[in-house]
Amino acid sequence: MLAAVRSAAVVGIDAIDITVEVDVVPGLPSWTIVGLASSAVREARERVTAALANSGFDVPSRRVTVNLSPADVRKDGTSFDLPIALALLAATGTLPVESLNGIVVAGELGLDGTIRPIRGTLSLARAASRSDAMLLVPRANVPEARLAPSCTVVAADTLTPLVVALRSGTLQELEHGEAPDPPLPSNDRGAVATADGLDFADVAGQAAAKRALEIAAAGGHNVLMIGPPGTGKTMLARRLTSILPPLTEDELLEVVAVHSVGGLVVPGTIPSATPPFRAPHHTISQAGLIGGGPGPRPGEVSLAHRGVLFLDELLELPRYILDAMRQPLEDGRVVIARAAHAVAFPARFQLVAAANPCKCGHAMSTDGRCQCSATDIERYRSRLSGPLADRIDLHVHVGAVEISTLGAAATSEPSAAMRGRVLAAREIQRGRYRKPAHRNADAAGRWLLTHGAFAPDAKSQLAAASERLMLSARAYHRVLRVARTIADLDAEETVGATAVAEALQYRG
Fold it and tell me: Is residue 66 within 8 Å of residue 33, measured between CB atoms?
């Protein structure tokens, strides 16, 4: 007997409809799973048979063929366990075949029949809502699935009550708990959107670096901080999210979709609207940073989508890994090509990097501690290629802080005050571009020259400085964007020569 049930496979952050067909015929007992299944999917035979037996169902001693259609799409993960089990029960007459109509099923099975959480639930919910189908997922995945608009979600903890509900036609009545409403961006525009209590008020001194990070937050610009060890570069970078606006509803869905595929969404919890902050170690591989591996999986540049990617000890990373970020920084997406297919992940992140000026770290110190030769310093700094440095809008020197400043009473400006100015600047940009997620960093340079309200003397100053500093066309346009952000922070409708001069000083 033949039975089928709908499921879905996640490719990138999108879900493709998959039909799970099970055919049970007389013959020597055997299992065959076809349809470009990975080893994790082929292992479903052992999990499904044990789960059925331990749940009190008969496992047929017949020839079982499982087909995952279409057969030219790679299937990976453990989410096909539950649809295979239900289709097998329908094929053996335990379930009515028509009871599986109109639902999309996904879930991993434990050997005792429990239904365990899976990755990529939001992508599956989006696919189900497009076809007006009901989505059946593990209970722990319900909060994530409910983020998708217009998706009917049901869930079960174990296989036995699920089969009873399907037999009786009461699937919609399955309890899935009181899942909280999806998180929406906070309306408290003055609140600091960090749960760990990080605040710029904790940072003594470093007024210039704080100003640069405020500009970066207001316009979505990339930043490189260079200075000796122990000057607070990491401390400053980790507080950037405390002045960033919360994610919009659309941005949140994008972030959750990527994090779910990457396995970062904790089952049973609701993701936060705080922009993500990723800080990988400098020994990370290229696949870990950009993405890849079996599947493939998103890398750190995609896990930082709509948030911050902080690379400490930037110049300790191999140059070929650093240069791999050039395309994501420019395009806002990563395309990972394989022999049979290509997968695209979003990667519109804000790069914040920190580096020492030389191998020993004291090239900028005035006490003569640096023993590096000029050749050594040049060789060390050459790990940052010119094309990548061109894509970084703000180059900031972070000097040492005097001990007397560290011991003084805290007088630094708190994140709440800085965040207020950042939110006001973002509101100006939202009105200018008429797109909620559009920032100055995303604007076209030629458009800014025409519609960015640059004063004639500011344009002349920028043109002269570009000739003197030998700026590339990319660097020229990035100075335009930074100058426009500075004017927005100062609530200036017109970009004057002062804003352009400040933007030029950040070209390293």
Answer: yes
- State residue 445's pLDDT score: 86
Q: For the chain, what percent of residues have pLDDT higher than 70?
A: 93
Whether the Cβ atoms of residue 485 and residue 479 lie closer than 8 Å to each other: no
**What would the two tokens of residue 464 be?**
């002269």
Higher pLDDT, 213 or 176: 213
Ordered domains of the chain (ranges, CATH)? 2-173 (3.30.230.10), 200-431 (3.40.50.300), 443-508 (no CATH)
Q: 């319900």: which residue's tokens?
A: 142
The answer to whether residues 72 and 341 touch, using CB atoms and an 8 Å cutoff, is no
As given in the structure block, the two tokens for residue 326 are 């050039």
What CA–CA distances, in Å, run from 46 to 41, 53, 56, 109? 10, 11, 16, 10
Question: What is the distance between the alpha carbons of residues 383 and 379, in angstroms, rounded to a whole number?
Answer: 7
DSSP letters for 146-214: TTSTT--EEEESBHHHHHHHHHHT-GGG-----PPPPP---S-TTS---SS---GGGS-S-HHHHHHHH
Give the tens place of pLDDT for each residue, 411-431: 778 999 999 999 999 999 999
Q: 456-469 vs 473-489: helix axis angle to the nearest 10?
A: 140
Q: Identify the three-state secondary structure at position 445.
A: helix
Q: How many CB atoms lie within 10 A of CB 412?
A: 15
Contact 96, 87 (CB under 8 A): no
Indicate the DSSP class of residue 75.
B
Contact 395, 469 (CB under 8 A): no
* Number of Cα atoms under 13 Å in the Cβ half of residue 43: 11
Indicate if the alpha-carbon torsion angle 493, 495, 497, 500 is positive or negative: positive
DSSP state of 97: G
pTM across the whole model: 0.88
357-406 confidence digits (pLDDT tens): 888 888 877 677 888 888 888 888 889 999 999 999 999 999 887 776 66
How far apart, in whole angstroms, are the C-alpha atoms of residue 82 and residue 44?
9
- Each residue of 234-250: pLDDT tens digit? 999 999 999 999 998 88
Cα(210)–Cα(234) distance, rounded to whole angstroms? 12
Look at strands 14-25 and 63-69 and give their pairing: antiparallel
Cα(8)–Cα(266) distance, integer angstroms = 21
